[in-house]
Amino acid sequence: MPLTDAQRTEIEEHGQTTATTKRPTVPALEEILFRAHPVLDHGFVRVIDYMGDDAAIVQAARVSYGRGTRKVSEDTGLIRYLMRHRHSTPFEMCEIKFHIKLPIFIARQWIRHRTANVNEYSARYSILDREFYLPSPEHMAAQSASNRQGRGDVLDAETATKVMHLLRDDAIRCYDTYENLLDTDNGPGLARELARMNLTLNTYTQWYWKVDLHNLMHFLSLRIDPHAQYEIRAYAEVMLSMLEAWVPIAAAAFKEYRVGAVTFSATMVVLLRKMLAGETVTQENSGLSRREWDEFQKVLHG
Amino acid sequence: MPLTDAQRTEIEEHGQTTATTKRPTVPALEEILFRAHPVLDHGFVRVIDYMGDDAAIVQAARVSYGRGTRKVSEDTGLIRYLMRHRHSTPFEMCEIKFHIKLPIFIARQWIRHRTANVNEYSARYSILDREFYLPSPEHMAAQSASNRQGRGDVLDAETATKVMHLLRDDAIRCYDTYENLLDTDNGPGLARELARMNLTLNTYTQWYWKVDLHNLMHFLSLRIDPHAQYEIRAYAEVMLSMLEAWVPIAAAAFKEYRVGAVTFSATMVVLLRKMLAGETVTQENSGLSRREWDEFQKVLHG
Amino acid sequence: MPLTDAQRTEIEEHGQTTATTKRPTVPALEEILFRAHPVLDHGFVRVIDYMGDDAAIVQAARVSYGRGTRKVSEDTGLIRYLMRHRHSTPFEMCEIKFHIKLPIFIARQWIRHRTANVNEYSARYSILDREFYLPSPEHMAAQSASNRQGRGDVLDAETATKVMHLLRDDAIRCYDTYENLLDTDNGPGLARELARMNLTLNTYTQWYWKVDLHNLMHFLSLRIDPHAQYEIRAYAEVMLSMLEAWVPIAAAAFKEYRVGAVTFSATMVVLLRKMLAGETVTQENSGLSRREWDEFQKVLHG
Amino acid sequence: MPLTDAQRTEIEEHGQTTATTKRPTVPALEEILFRAHPVLDHGFVRVIDYMGDDAAIVQAARVSYGRGTRKVSEDTGLIRYLMRHRHSTPFEMCEIKFHIKLPIFIARQWIRHRTANVNEYSARYSILDREFYLPSPEHMAAQSASNRQGRGDVLDAETATKVMHLLRDDAIRCYDTYENLLDTDNGPGLARELARMNLTLNTYTQWYWKVDLHNLMHFLSLRIDPHAQYEIRAYAEVMLSMLEAWVPIAAAAFKEYRVGAVTFSATMVVLLRKMLAGETVTQENSGLSRREWDEFQKVLHG
């Protein structure tokens, strides 16, 4: 239930105002503008505004007087070239603004990306809603034995339910106390900036998050990775689909040269050459650690 | 002569494409979109794209689902409050992109503002035009005697003309050599990345410069200042008028609380209180240096 | 109880290794290096490393080959001049690194300053300690009636105790659940990256925070302000005293031209001139809002 | 001739002051501290100050109370892991400050890296020296035919000499005019901020440049690349050797996972798997453009 009826109405009304503009406009993105795309149990992502399109990347790379674009094939070639050679500045010329609702512990992970503009809903100034993230059973997993910062096996159904109840009960209880603390009639009327400390970290917050295309892709490349925590990956995946609606050529290049690309270390490059020359390479004679060797094998054999 | 006919045509054609958008749109800025506003002898500033308007500041400050704005008076009050108390993040939610043509020595001063996105015309890749800045007589000034980094008296007409000729002759000669160095038929066909080193610092370059509203105002507040070099101030003044077309409420607050505002040091505040209480304050008993005292007097007596 | 015995020993051992260096060294800061200065009930700040001193500011401003400093009076004058005229780059040439322990809800406020480097203790990777912030009675205050984001009257002793118990009970209960969730023997052995969501926002976290002198002063000027939340101000005050040990001349200039300085709006400057000329100025004829007028009066009359 | 005798003396005197510090200290870097390492004909790089060492990376990654390091093999493993997985924040915890003298056209390329602190010698405030970069014959190259932003064949000796004379004559003439313009006795005494526009882009400037280890490595990875312009690569190479003196473990990881590493696109990874499975892959059936295919072949066959 990411939205109340009142919010839905507000969004719909907002979407009914249109205007004429000379700016680059992307119909596929206009179509989903303002719409809340649900993520997790109460979260969402929605695009609030954007600046630029695929052509704006080309235009900036050429520092053009006019539209700056030529044939589609040439423009595509240029965008792919820029992506491949990490010429990042033309991608910085596009900008997008999101409204995102997300659990606080994920917001804390997210905010570490410093190259974005943020306005967060202030619990110093306002009162947070009674909404907390509770993982669905298929995302309730045990600590990974091999990876100190990852998940292992999914919990069995019964245990998952128990965990869910524990999380829910504590979150509710803490929120009840929060409300009580704020109460000026029957409670102490505690300052909001203090009362908020009683909330649990799965409480939802929300923010406006504005970022340029280069930094958005950097964020996505890190957070769409299988090693990223599932809860932030869920947001990244939705945002990748928004990226594809917005700048389809850049998005395709991004998937080719970043998301799906693989970096081989100096040692691995030497090993590759040996393998292609028919030499037998084993972990023992490779010079790679066990961990690196496993990563290497995984890439080579899909 | 900031534009060739071909450039003018390109710009005009670009401005004829319009589209329908749900995004915030500012008619006053649409009207001047793409248009080159001349600065100095060959330079210009033109707005290429923008994101957001006054209402977007309010919307971000409120982290709204819909438009987020209320009564005009309330919105104005909020924007002024945010400006006064240096709550900068809502202003970061608006973005603007300029195309600017400027002399290299000014570009070097400008680029020190790091919180913007830049794509500069590459003299490694392309050939620069034969255009250099030559100050008009009223801006030809002697070194200031009192301020090591400022100008003093304007040169007399005859001297100014002589200086202009010296600057022009060297620039032309250097540009001629540049062209000769690049010449693959009758010259050595030197690499562009090398040949460019022969140009003088008043040669014009151009770039796309994209910045958020908060950082634009910070740039303007520093560069519109009477202590800023005239040549960069000329750009800042044009951009301030563009700011006024774009976000009139924020621009008015900016002029009230930044451009026209004055900061008094801790000591000055104490002195002010004494003066208002009728005490006589002199430089000798003020605790201010001669220089600070002069600055103080200048503010107090306009 | 900000430190365990083991931590205290580790810190002491660390402080016993000394080396000879040609780098600028500040004896007053060396003396407190590594030492944990307590803040709030379980928090602390300690300086871990630093680069530069007052002379390094002067040296950078002069782009010197050698030490770059001259007479103390000249150097002091230059630093004050740079501070007064907001020439920020020479101050960026000094850097300091802190180790800070602080409640999560304060860490969330703090992290909004993006121009610093941060390494936070990861609750994805490790287990957080059973420590949460509980305000002391004199900091337990009701919501302010006049300021939506501030505190009003301090709670009476009895109510403060009740509030403290509510906060403590919820924090303990949530932490107990957290431990239980992580338990691989008698609990579900939930992944750390999930279990952490059950903690309350007053749980302590810690990080390494590295920042240059310019950005540190910007942070301090905002967070030492009476409008800042008490809990972050407590850290800012300790850090200001560290600033004074590190760069005494810059710190004095900072207090004179920033902390103790006051900015008057364009309208206020005009009013001030009228008042000094003997005219009677009232809120009604001032053009200031009631709120601005009150702020103005407060500055003028101390 | 990068240094005058006076400068040499200043540097030497500076290097004679030593102090005792508890901070991490790197003897190999102390040894070269302040020393000017020549680059190009009149340029240099010298390390002025530094913060942190290899152990400081480990310490930050562990958010330690004490030294934070364990066995050398464990620390090395951690640093390599952080580098491989692009965990950049621990590398941001080290900082280094350089004094660099370089031609203006290279400074313009360099400054595009925005994540550093810079104090440049001001030609608004001071007078630049009569020193300009003149490429040595082996670096005088024709424009590349295949790469729009690169060099092709080296010029023959006679042509190189001619080019050198052209560059030198224009630079000298422009500098003579500059001096004449500044002359208050026999010239117009033009303001320095104006006179500087007459200098050529190969004139030397200098700055203090301070950067964290993560951003230094990013800079080096881009500028040490064979596609980077020779003149900036010359600086990058000297700075890489300084990196090796400072943080040998991080530097080795940097060479293994960045400088010597190769990124394969999604398509290339699929092709590689086919090749290792014995399939014949040609440009025609590869799905790669001619250019990408050539790059791919070059990596695979060294």
Radius of gyration of chain A from CA coordinates: 24 Å
Strand % of chain A is 15-25%
Distance between the termini of chain A: 39 Å
Question: Which regions of chain A contain 5 or more consecutive residues with pLDDT less than 50?
Answer: none
How many helices of chain A? 13
Task: Please tell me what the overall shape of chain A is.
Answer: flat
Family (chains A, B, C, D): Belongs to the thymidylate synthase ThyX family.
GO biological process, one term (chains A, B, C, D): dTTP biosynthetic process
Function (chains A, B, C, D): Catalyzes the reductive methylation of 2'-deoxyuridine-5'-monophosphate (dUMP) to 2'-deoxythymidine-5'-monophosphate (dTMP) while utilizing 5,10-methylenetetrahydrofolate (mTHF) as the methyl donor, and NADPH and FADH(2) as the reductant.
Catalytic activity (chains A, B, C, D): dUMP + (6R)-5,10-methylene-5,6,7,8-tetrahydrofolate + NADPH + H(+) = dTMP + (6S)-5,6,7,8-tetrahydrofolate + NADP(+)
Give an overview in words.
The structure is a homotetramer of 302-residue chains. With 302 residues, chain A is an alpha+beta fold. Chain A has 3 domains: 5-132 and 204-259, Gyrase A, domain 2; 134-201; 266-300, no CATH class. Chain A is built from 13 helices and 9 strands. The first copy, chain A, has helices at residues 5-16, 27-32, 54-62, 72-84, 104-110, 157-182, 192-195, 213-223, 230-246, 248-259, 266-276, 283-286, 290-300; strands at residues 19-21, 37-39, 43-51, 95-103, 117-120, 141-143, 151-154, 204-212, 262-264. The first copy, chain A, is flat and about 80 Å long.
